[in-house]
Amino acid sequence: MNARKIIIGRQRERRIIWAAMRASLESGKHKYKRSGKKSRSQWSTFEKLLRVFRWFLKLGGLYQKGIQNAQEVKVERITLSFDDLPEAFDGFTILHLTDLHIDSLPGHEENILNAIEGNHYDTVFLNGDYRRDTSGSFRPIIKPMQRISDALNPPFGKWAVLGNHDTYLMAEYEEEVGISLLVNESAVFEKDGEKIFLTGTDDPFYYFSEQAILALERPLEGFKIAMIHTSELRDFAAKNGYQLYLSGHTHGGQICLPNQKAIITHQFEGNEYTAGMWNYHGMTGYTSRGCGVSGIPIRFNCPPEITFITLKKS
Question: Tell me: the pLDDT tens digits for 89-112?
């Protein structure tokens, strides 16, 4: 078995250009969408509404129950079959983690690791949103992320993309944390002479750029997986022959009605992409509920999850 991993498209010049562009976008505190629209972030207004909602929950005695729900990480197991999966990767298992927001709940890294313990996986994919806030210091998350990374040592490595809560400065901590970041780049996994590819793009919810599209259009021949913070680039991935698309961002709603219908999702692609399995033009997709919280540290009718995705050859 050859578990060697190669970054495709990682050139120092590209990273410098991306970092400069992302720094400019972050400093403007705007959302930049693929439609070309630019809008001011309304996160501060949303937080004011959440403070009112928090007060009502405390008044009704539900706030502590919501915090407890947010700490009870559920293990989801999914098996996906593909005709064109290379034989060598039959049974290949991905540990999918997203939306950790690791500084929202003190010690939450232990809840996540307890859920992972004792399970087999070949690689780890982290789908963005590692801190609570969308701006300010990210240093409080470094040690918890190191704690998680140090406990996970799969043969095919640990791979991450950025979400809309993250900053380009996190790219400077790849080696220190021990997780490889894919910024509009691809990696190839090799086993017994066969390959599968993983492409990760920058967050398209706040920080869309044509570089993300170019990464998905790169001519890679073989089984391809896209890891992108939101589901909104699924059309480009499907058009370019990706078999699997993994996303997060929505938290599954985080606070849902008893029928699991999300009240707020912060995504506009359609309810079918809010949580769980979906299909787009023959491409299989999965949106995780995430394992953290943001805005308010509670969950109702929407447990946090870690996901083990096992690939099988049909």
Answer: 999 999 999 999 999 999 999 999
Beta partners for residue 185, in sequence order: 200
Domain assignment present for residue 138? The answer is yes
What sign for the dihedral angle of Cα 90, 196, 97, 257? Answer: negative
- Give the CA-trace dihedral at 32, 287, 308, 245, to 10 degrees: -70
Separation of CA 268 from chain center? 17
Residue range of the domain that includes 85: 42-313
Q: Decide if 31 is inside a domain.
A: no
pLDDT recorded at residue 226: 98
Q: Is residue 16 part of a domain?
A: no
Angstrom distance (rounded) from CA 92 to CA 118: 17
> In angstroms, rounded to a whole number, what is the distance separating the alpha carbons of residues 97 and 247?
10
Count of domains observed in the chain: 1
For residues 221 and 219, what is the distance between their CA atoms, to the nearest angstrom? Answer: 6
Tell me how far apart the alpha carbons of residues 127 and 107 are, in angstroms, rounded to a whole number.
Answer: 20
Handedness of CA 99, 268, 171, 276 (dihedral sign): positive
Give the global pTM. Answer: 0.93
Q: How many CB atoms lie within 10 A of CB 151?
A: 13
Looking at residue 56, which CATH number applies to its domain?
A: 3.60.21.10
